Amino acid sequence: MSDLLSRFPRVPLADLPTPLHEAPRLTETLGGPRVLVKRDDATGLALGGNKTRKLEFLLGRALAEGHDTVVTFGAVQSNHARQTAAACARLGLRCELVLTRSVPRPDALYETSGNVLLDGLLGARTHIVDGADEALALLAEIGPAYAIPPGGSDATGALGYVAAGLEFAAQAADLPGGVDRIVVATSTAGTTAGLALGLAHAGLDTAIEAVCVYEPAGVTAATLDAVLGATADLLGAPLPERRPRVHGDWFGPGYGVPTPEMVEAVRLFARTEGILLDPVYTGKAAAGLAGLARTGAIGPDETVVFWHTGGAPGLFVYPDALTGAGAS
Ligand SMILES: *Cc1c(COP(=O)(O)O)cnc(C)c1O
């Protein structure tokens, strides 16, 4: 690993490097850009995902600071919470998850299956709450703990994606012609911010297309700027000259709310490459990839990497959207 990251405590959790797969049938179906898929759904920790890379640095720090309890926050179906629970199990840390009902899904399936089912199996204590007041009251009850923000997106967590950017640069060096663009789902933005800094440090000018899935484009762009600034400060590195472009067109009515384009994209990846996306994050990002290719914003001669950030456990709590009328 480069000197850039060697001074930060890190605990190994992910199987790295993750594969970078050609996607020839997807490429053919999109009728244009050559598509590859970076498989961060295959980080190997309890069904994997992008939070595993962040947790290497976050829990590295928690251990270095002598904590025995970790608390983190998310939606009821948070992939971040599930990966935190798994990492804590592996490291023998106590894990408290404060999960907020932030998606309009009052049904029992949403609160018992998918990620939240796994949280319990992995030994975490889950607390489902309606809002910030309840969450704060819980924090007092939980007591001293290493607190990880939603999505693991502080500067320390984003270091995991600085490392991913360096990892990717080494893989891209073997591709004749290089990689023109990366398309990635963006919510709390640590993934996108870390990647932008890692690619810049490696000297790559690959463009990043950040597809909003959590908040509309304006809010997401501000979140991204804040995480970029904090992470650059922590690294003592300059801000990247080439900023990620933030797209709000595939967000739909809200976080965790299905769109027809998402369903279409989940089916497209499944049926052309046997790759499972998810309804909340990667399905909407892949809808962005398809949309940008269709309009020519991603040119037919380009090479584009779809950065798969995980999330497949979420498929099991969206049976109606994925199998319902109009979704075949
Ligand atoms: C959290 C998450 C993202 C978004 O990552 P951020 O760093 O929060 O922007 C994307 N995809 C999946 C599957 C996630 O769980």
Automatic annotation (TrEMBL):
<dbReference type="InterPro" id="IPR027278">
    <property type="entry name" value="ACCD_DCysDesulf"/>
</dbReference>
<protein>
    <submittedName>
        <fullName>D-cysteine desulfhydrase family protein</fullName>
    </submittedName>
</protein>
<comment type="similarity">
    <text>Belongs to the ACC deaminase/D-cysteine desulfhydrase family.</text>
</comment>
<dbReference type="InterPro" id="IPR036052">
    <property type="entry name" value="TrpB-like_PALP_sf"/>
</dbReference>
<keyword id="KW-0663">Pyridoxal phosphate</keyword>
<dbReference type="InterPro" id="IPR001926">
    <property type="entry name" value="TrpB-like_PALP"/>
</dbReference>
<dbReference type="Pfam" id="PF00291">
    <property type="entry name" value="PALP"/>
</dbReference>
<feature type="domain" description="Tryptophan synthase beta chain-like PALP">
    <location>
        <begin position="15"/>
        <end position="310"/>
    </location>
</feature>
